[in-house]
Amino acid sequence: MATEAEREFHREMVTGADRLKREIGYNPTRFNQMVAEHGGAEATRQLLRGRDASDGFTTLWEAGRLEMSVEAAALLPWYADLFSDEQRGVARRRLVEHGFDVDGFLRDRQARPPAWIQEPSAEG
What we know:
Elements (H helix, E strand, L loop, with lengths): L3 H21 L4 H10 L1 H8 L7 H8 L7 H5 L10 H13 L4 H10 L13
């Protein structure tokens, strides 16, 4: 059974792909197939294997949209349990090598965490 983090990561990958199609005209067809077949987290684990980034990563880099990459998503603290330290290291290295401000991205995203991880407010 999938954890909440796995379900939310999968949802983020699907909606992110739709957003890229709308915003920059990029349809990550192969990635969408991988997500449909394996789920978002496993598709990302597969993309984080090996030394080189995917063609999709290169497309996002060229478009100035690395914040939409699986590498960036894998580094978000609320998804930390889905990826190994090695996978997260690969993600960070790829982003840094391509001039992406990883720490700035993480600060920005952590300032606006998704509703599903926020603690319910105490009412009293």
